[in-house]
Amino acid sequence: MKKPYAVLKQHRFYFGGLLLSFIAGGLFLLLYGKEYTFLSLNSYHPFFLNVFFINYTFMGDGIFAICLIGLMFFYFKNKQHGFALLYAFLFSGLVTQVLKNLISSPRPKIYFEQGTYLHFIDGVTLSGSSGFPSGHTATAFAIATAMILMMKNKNLQLLVLIAAIMVGYSRIYLAQHFLSDVLVGMIIGSAAGISAVYFAKNRIRFKRSINRIHRMPHAPASSTPGIQTA
Would the pLDDT of 30 be above 90? Predict the structure, then answer.
């Protein structure tokens, strides 16, 4: 297992971009607040973007994650990567569901029930409560982070990061979440992805060590010579 500094250096574009995105989003939220940041990120709603984000947000859905995990196991036949994606999905899902039930933060539908927000999109089913954090964002970043850490092609780092960020933005665009929900989802997902890859690699190493022990030749049991009597 590589040292953390070596891992960060090797994937500096992904993690550097992730850190900058989080800082920029956090400062924007800190300076302007929950309501203004949501409204400003939702000021432009052309029809083609409505259609695009209604479909694109599916990349943060659990069904999409399960399909990727299935492909890794059964098409690419890579158990280590398959288990890493599975753990990332489960870890991020568990944490987000616990926080959703503990905090029960209202989503935009309830928050703006007085009619101050008018860009709700037809055909999008809106939830009212348990908005914090964003589960779709957490899933997207969990899968993206795990994939980046396992990929041999390091040139895709920024592309994968942008793809995950767009899932987070789609949740704001579709009025499902606030910026704060998305930012925390980014943290949860990224942490889940890192933990999952580490866990999966050590699981494989542990299993190989056990198999090597079982394959080691066993010394024959020594027999104690019998005592002869006169």
Answer: yes
At the top level of CATH, the class of 4-40+49-210 is: mainly alpha
pLDDT band at 219 (very low <50, low <70, confident <90, very high): low
Q: Chain-centre distance of CA 168, in angstroms?
A: 11
Q: What angle do CA 16, 21, 24 make, to 5 degrees?
A: 125
Rounded to whole angstroms, how far apart are CA atoms 18 and 92? 17
pLDDT tens-digit series, residues 167-206: 999 999 999 999 999 999 999 999 999 999 999 888 766 5
Indicate if the alpha-carbon torsion angle 81, 82, 85, 87 is positive or negative.
negative
- Give the residue extent of every domain in the chain: 4-40+49-210
Tokens of 86: 């599975």
Q: Judge whether 161 and 139 are in contact, CB under 8 Å.
A: no
Whether the CB-CB separation of 181 and 41 falls below 8 Å is answered with: no
Cα 155 to chain centroid distance, Å, stands at 20
Q: How many other CB atoms sit within 10 Å of the CB of residue 202?
A: 11
What pTM did the predictor assign? 0.87
H-only helix segments in 11-134:
12-40, 47-56, 62-70, 79-103, 108-111
SS3 labels along 8-32: HHHCHHHHHHHHHHHHHHHHHHHHH
